[in-house]
Structures are given as C-alpha cells and as structure tokens.
User: Fold these one by one.
Assistant:
Number 1:
Amino acid sequence: MSEFLPTGIQLSYLVAVTLFFFGLKKLGSPATARRGNLWAAVGMFIAIVATLLNEEVLNYEMIFVGIVIGSVIGAITAYKVEMTAMPELVGLFNGLGGAASAMIAVGEFWRFLSAAQTPPLPTTITAVLGVLIGGVTFTGSLIAFAKLKGIMSGSPITFPLQQPFNIALLIAFLAGSVYICFSPFNLPVFLGIVGISLVLGVLFVIPIGGGDMPVVISLLNSFSGLAASAAGFVVMNNLLIIAGALVGASGIILTIIMCKAMNRPLTNVLFAGFGTGETSATVAGGGGTTDKSVRTIDPEEGAMMLGYARSVVIVPGYGMAVAQAQHSVKELVDMLEGLGVEVKYAIHPVAGRMPGHMNVLLAEANVPYPQLYDMDDINPQFEQTDVALVIGANDVVNPAAREDQKSPIFGMPILEVDRAKHTIVIKRSLNTGFAGVDNGLFYKEKTMMLFGSAKDAVAKLVSEVKQL
C-alpha cells in the first residue's frame, strides 16, 4: 500500500487537473457555468483528499480544524454577500490566497533556518518570489476591497515622487533578495523584504481610481495564482504549481478582456488614475440644474410605448443589480411577450462590476440564455428596434465614446442604444457613472428618462402594462 501511495496521489492530481480544465471550459458559457463550478469543486476535493494521504502530513488535527473554520466562514460569506458586492468578496479572497502563498514561502524558508540548514538556491529564489507576489497580492487586494466597499475613497491617492519611491522600494527588494540568496541566515534582511512586499502592494493600488478596481481585482487574481504556483515550487507540489498557473493565466486573460471592452491599455488602468468611483450630480429628475434639457416620461406612457412596440431590447446595468430588479424585469418581459412583443437582452462585457455580472443576475431570474445577446451581436439590430429600455446602465451606453474625441472614454465599445427608434432610460438621476463622464444619451431627442429606483420603476411599468 505504501509503495502505491505516491503513484496514487499523483494520479489523483492528474484527475483533479483534468477536472479543472473541463471546469474552466464550462465556465466560458452562462448555460454551463454552474456545471463548470461543480466539476472544478470536485477536482479540488480530490486534490485535498490526495494531499492529506501524503505521508509528510504530520498534524491532521490542525488541518481539519482549519478546514472546518474556513468552510464555515466561506459558506456563510458566500451565502450572505449580494451579487453587487461580489467583486469585493473576490478581492478579499484574492488577498487571503496571496497571504497563504506568502506564508508558505516564509514557513518553508524558516524550516530550513530552524534546522540550521542552508536552503537550496532554487528554494530560496522561489520563496522570495512567493513573498513578493503573495505580499503584493495580499495588501493590494485589501486596498481594492476597501475602495470598492467605500471604506476608502475611490479617488486616486498620490503623493510627490511616488513613482521614484516605488522604484526605490523595488530596487531595495531586489538587492535584499540577492543578498538572501548568498546569505540566507540573515533574518532581519529576510523580514525586511517581506515588509517591502507588503508596502509595495499598498502603493500599487492606492493611485488607481475606484472605477477601475474590478480590473485591478482581476489582475490581483492572476497574481494570487502566480503566488500559489511559486508556493508549489517551494513545497514541490505539482498540483499547486498547475492550479496556480491556471488561475494566473485565466486572471490575466480576464484582465485583457476587460481592458479591451473599455478600449484602454492595462498601463492606462494602472497609472492614469482614471475614474474616481464617486459620482457627482449634474441634474436629477428633481434637484440639480443644467443648461441641457431632458425629456421625461411617466410609467403609463412608458408602458404604452413598450406594450405596443414590435421589438424591445433590455439593457441591464449596475443600477439594476443594486436595486435587485432582475425578477421585476423578467416579469415585465413575460408580460410584453404575452402581448406579442419580441424582447431581447443586450449584455455589455463590463456591465455591472465584473464580466458576466448581468448574465448571473438574469440567470437567477430564470431568463432564457438564448435571449441574451453580446454587444457585437445586438448592435447591428438597434436600428430596427422600436424601444431600447436601459435599466441602470451609464458608461456602457454613452455615445460620447463614439462621437467625442476629447472624451476620456472615446473609442470604448458601447451598446448603441441611441440608434434605436426610441430609448427609455431608467435611472435615479443624471449623475455620472464610474468614468465620471456626463452621458449625452440622456439629452438626445429620441431619449426619455424615467427617474427612480430600477426596481420601483420597473414595478410601475409592470402595473401599467397589465392595464393594456
């Protein structure tokens, strides 16, 4: 049995990795995402069981205590956190993953020093990398969490000579790392580079605007995978290396997708201080003034426009998510379809706070997947659409991205709702979105504003449609 055990563990790892790959593949479509999550979870369960069978595991009691505590905290947190707060939760979990990887690197390095043994050079190098990536991920994720949660201001935080100071810290880290490679028993230097990695994480995130935090969280997710992979090299665990690499690769791919959807390079996201995450009122349905005028509509008029249209496109946004209006929207759509109206949903890649956010919310309301259209598929159809109903979306429907070369969002792909025959926008006010840019859509001749909470406004539309 003992002779078979190492081979059996490696075979179990192979099965687990295979399930990870299939799970990631299934996550590529909303229709199969739940199944993909399940497959990946089964793979992780197999990996954990196989690892616990390793003869080098000596303290099962503490491991099981950790598993129970972590499982309880994770289950309660995932159950209670709203979908609108999912980016914060992901950011927090990223940070904990980075901290765990850094602690593994520190612990393994400490084990050699406690035994008065000189760690092999490859172990020292991977431990230093684990400390750097894990430390930056940990503190950077905590700052991102704080900005999204509103604990910290979403505005970029800068100070004089910030970039030279960051470069100096990085040089100090590299110098300390080289020194540790040749003199590993110098504990103050090792603790010094651990501290520098934590400071670098803070300084990496604070100058980034709150509106870009979802992109930063995606990037930090990639970092957490790389940190896990580095930890795998430290403890010589093949599964940890592969799983970390998968997370690192998928995280950077998601980051690139989000940047492409905003038509902004990653360097602009990281260093331009774009988007404060705080809105300022320009005008509201009541309160606030502006030289521009808008056309308003009441629920009765809106219901008549929707009920007597041949085709309607629903454009959900973050406002719908915050109001938890997806079930009311589904009810409205069911009633419109009962009147013979063709209804589709237009999904922008970065609508909400993360890619797939709207898909998940609409799936929760049992919206059929065939009704969900990507931006590239739905944009050519807007000119033949009678009514585009925008629910809480802002930057992703702003025509300035197409028309105003001076706009900071110029070139960003948008849902071209202004090309529809009529556009109804449900929004609390005319406040700007994350980009801090006024939306010219609100003032166009074919646009009518229905001011109010998404859930309340849609409920009133449902009530009026019933009267048709």
Number 2:
Amino acid sequence: MAFFETIYSWFHNFYNDVMWDTVREIISDNDELLFADSLYVVGIVTLVVSLLVAVAFYIWPINSPSFKSWKAWLVMLLLSMLINFGIGVGMGYSRVLSVNDDEEACALVLGDDYDGQALTDETGINNYLGFGLSNLFVGGIFFIICSIPLTFYNGNARFSPFRK
C-alpha cells in the first residue's frame, strides 16, 4: 500500500537498502513467505496498537480524571512508541529470516551483489533496531492522530492535550 510505503520512506535512513527492499514489497511468488507484503502488515499492526493504547487512555480501562493530564498523555505516548518499537524489530527480523530461506528472494533483494550469501549477512542488528526506530516514530504519529478525535469524545479528558 502506497500510504505506508510513503510514511516509512520518511524514516528510511535508519536502516540499509537491503532491509528496505526486504520489508517493502512482495519479492517472490512464494506464498509461504512470512508477511508477504510486510510493510503493509507492519503499518496496520502499528496503527491498531496505537489506536488501542489511545482508546485505553481515553475510554477504557484507564478512563480516570486523575490520569488525564499532559504527563499522563506523554506516558501513554511513550508506551505506544515502545510497543511499536518492539513490533518493528520483531516483524523486521522475522521478515528477513523468512526471506533468507528463499534463495530466489535473496537474489532479487541483493541483485548483482548476490553470490550465495545469506540475507542475514547483509542485515545486522543495527538494521533491525533501525527499522524498529522508524516504527517507533510512525507509531508516535499514529498515536497523536488517534488521540485528537478521542480527546473530544471523553469528558474526563479536559486537561489532556488537544483540548483546552
């Protein structure tokens, strides 16, 4: 989906081109690859997690006037970002491992540089952490966007952001 590809391309500098090509598109006809269109899956999961954390803050189960301030909102934003960081690292790593087993897919990702080496040789821990960091920022953006309409829905949220 072009929407998620555009958003994740903003943070493409956190990881290398091999990782980007691996998570960005369907690179093989092999339907057994885990998360065949993984950037779309990661984006949807990130959006759902951000929405669920925002709903937990504004509606249920944390719907309390004593926890409706800027500080509480920042705590929930950081919680959402940390969860999405873990999702980015985990899903990026699982995607590389699933592509690594498919020799044709490795050749497509590495192009002219492919000489039989494993895809995991080209993507180190820094690239998984970089993809997780990009997912952290995307999750933060999604949480902020999800918070805006939920703020006006909740009467207890009069001291939270976006409502003064």
Number 3:
Amino acid sequence: MTKLTQELVELLTLEKLDENIYRGQSRNIVGKRVFGGQILGQALRAASYTTDRPAHSLHAYFLFGGDVNAPIIYEVDRLRDGKSFVSRQVRAIQNGRMIFTAMISFAAPEQGLDFQKEAPNYPAPNDLQSEQQLKESLVRFIPKSLQESFMRERHIELKPIHDVRNFFNPQPEPPFYAHYVKTHGKLMGEQDNVALHQAVIAFYSDFTLMTTALRPHGLSYLSPHLQCASIDHSLYFHKPVRADEWTLYDMEATVTSNSRGLNYGYMWQDGQLVCSTVQEGLMRLRDNEI
C-alpha cells in the first residue's frame, strides 16, 4: 500500500470511545477548513461500525465549517434494525458544536428489477494524463506563494477527462465535468472490506462536484469575492464498487439560483452505474451581500 493510501485509510479509521461514539482525526486536504469528503467518509465509517450490512444511501447536511487542527467526535443513533433496512443517524461534533449531521441507510443485496441509464462514451483512463501531469503545465500561471500547495499530490489519483482549469483565470464553460478516480494503492488484507471501500467513495465523491455549477459563470473556488461551501450531500450506492479501481465520475450542474447551485454526479465502473450523488452548494458573490 502506498503512503498516501495508507494515510487515507488511517484518516477513515476511527477510534471507538464508547458504545456508538467514535473519534476521527482531521487532515489538511484543501485548506484550513475540514474537507467535506473527510467528514462524509468518517461519518459513513462510524455508522458502518454498528452494522454488518453495506450502505445504500446517505443524506447529509454541513452545518458549520470544521477545524483541521481538532479531532471530530461522531455520535451514532441506532434508529432501526429491521429485516430489510438498518437506519442510522450520525452527528459530527467538534469543540462542543454539531458541525454535520447525516441519515444513513444500510441493506443487504437482493435480486430484483435491474435497469440503468446508458454509460457515457469517454476515453479510457490509460489514454489520459494524470492530474499531476496536467498541473505541471499550469504551475507557471500560479502565484509563487501558492505553487507548493497547488502541486501537492492528492490522497487519491485523478485523471481528468476535461482539461484542468487555470483556477486564477477561469473562463465560461459548459456545466459538465468528468474524471477517473481511484486510490493510489490497492486495499488489501483487513482493509479490503465493503465498509472501507464505501467510505473512500464517500471521501472522493466531494471532489469537484460543487464547483461544476461555477463553470458556466466563468468562476472557480478561488475567484475573488466568491464564497463557496457545501450545504448538503446525498450519496446512493447501487451496486458493489471498489475504491481502488478506476471509477468514472461524471458530473453536471442543472441550475444556479438564489446563490446556490445544484450538481449531480454518476459513478461508473466496468460499464455499471455503481453510485449517484447530489449536492447543493453555496455560491455567494460577497459584493451582493446586504
């Protein structure tokens, strides 16, 4: 297992403090505030410790920004243990304040009706450059004070299908974006379990999804006078998925209104639609604040 993958596994492995209470550590992924994907992955992992079934849906709200310098406590409420479905509520608490809440449902696989939309026709991952290679071509446009942060390698491997944007000089583009994503190394041994694979999927489901709605406006998360934040996030697991194999993440934005943007994502693996995501994000122009 590579160092970055090991760090990701450790980030998504929680310490049990008491029955239904867990503690997760934070890491600087995107800046001073805790990366939303970290909280999603940790919350899903906390709930998974209380059942042996795989998750099929997660519905979450981000209430306050998290501090990367402080641990996060996850409290799990066992709402239901039914024959078909297991329901859990998770609260993430930091410095005595609830910063995040989620409802998560688990269910064992079963046979039934089977249909999916047609998979998109994109180049294969082996035919694409990695995000790191593409960033090399842009680093000269990045202020020197930010170049080290810009070039820092992510804990997951990305291969964009669309070109990496110059976030300091974005241009209006269609509200679509797609990339392939997976962990750098294989999940093996005791780490090769459904709960951890799903937690990693939740972690990387938050990368670039919200910013899809910024593209038609010629804006990026670094644009001056723009306030961006995730408001809510939903994740559906349709079929078994491995986080350490290439997953096509196809995203689109359908509307921006009232300083918010709505984004949808579809994850494909081996031609199968394995996961879907929905996220609404805050996109507030500070000059418009009253």
